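Posted in: Protein Modeling Q&A

I'm a second-year student putting together a small comparison for a lab meeting, and my supervisor asked me to include a predicted structure for Mitochondrial fission protein ELM1. I've never done this before, so apologies if this is the wrong subforum. The sequence is pasted below exactly as I got it from our records. If anyone can share the structure token output, I'd also love a short note on what stands out.
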Amino acid sequence: MKPIRLPEPPASPRAIGGGVGGITDIFDAGVSVIRRAVVIGNGFPASENQSLGLVHALGLSSHHTLYRVTRPRGGINEWLHWLPVSVHKKLYIIITQIYGYSRILFAGRGKKLMPLPSENGFSAGLSSVLEADVKNIVTMARQTFEKEGPLLVVACGRDTISIASSIRRLASDNVFVVQIQHPRSRLERFDLVITPQHDYYPLTPRAQEQVPRFLRRWITPREPPDRHVVLTTGALHQVDSAALRSAASAWHDEFAPLAKPLLVVNIGGPTRYCRYGGDLAKQLTASLHNVLASCGSVRISFSRRTPEKISNIVAKEFGTHPKINIWNGEEPNPHMGHLAWADAFIITADSVSMLSEACSTGKPVYVIGAERCTWKFVEFHKTLRERGLVRPFTGLEDMSESWSYPPLNDTADAASRVHQALTERGWALRP
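Accepted answer (user: helix_wrangler)
Welcome! Here is the predicted structure, written out as tokens:
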């Protein structure tokens, strides 16, 4: 059996301070120590996974609390997500009041009205997740500061910006706030901003040529990154050497007997900057047919964003193929097992998260559909190719031939920068 190749674990961020003679001495000097974290989520797995990945890399996985910014969902609410959360919620209250009045008005006329959907989380059994209330979090940070030390606040996504920035404004002496993904303006509202390099694509000459001059003032960001901005190649996540080794053990019985090489195919869905449809699915199936002879086995997974039209094309083509297994979407999710046991990956170009995780393994990653991407996604894929992390999937590959590269360690690198920023403030982090 071909051995599993796992990346070597990155150096511990705490070692940057000088090990026993560095951060340990600072602890002895009575510096404020962070031992806990608050994660501000937005209900989207891709965003929350970034925050949880950073918390994990900082050693606070067992010492964090998840709060969530919720929006009303379903029906007309799907057309209101461009509004700020607070405005959306107030409008939702007005709509529910009008709807409630309408039910009374039409009840005697035999009209049947469907109930308005519940807020995000409650209808999905997530009522135990705490609502992200600024006042409560600020009060907690202040009242527990003397006994438990400062509070690390990690947030990700547009809907979390106002919450995280308000917490820092009201409790700046008690918290250290990290905002993941570019907040577009007023970066001084946060202690640290972690964002991919391609978010600064609008400042490049190529991007400037694509935007009419009268619209440029509305395109963000407008300024280059300053010293409290941490640039990454891709998205943060929870996949590290320890997680891969754990997954390799947990999924041993299912994946060890499979014929090698094992090819994992991850299919996402079209996005604003990477549009495609059934044509890409047909291109993928045709190219995959060409490389099957060099594969021992193939595992295919779809994401939550995969349109049914695309999944149906793939399932119809490969649903009964003896070499291929298509995940049916039921738990347990084999994603971590795929990352640990795969010998190579084919991934659609739309997902920064899936590509970032796969590139953290050091194994061959082939991308399909990159030529369909636009704007900042073009820059993202260019960077991946230039660093030797990915290659385009053409259907001419021999999957038995392997290649490698230094694994992408964005999360560990970001965690190191958090430690550095805390040290500059006179604080430290110790799980």
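A couple of things worth pointing out for your meeting: The chain has 15 helices and 15 strands. The first helix runs from residue 23 to 28.
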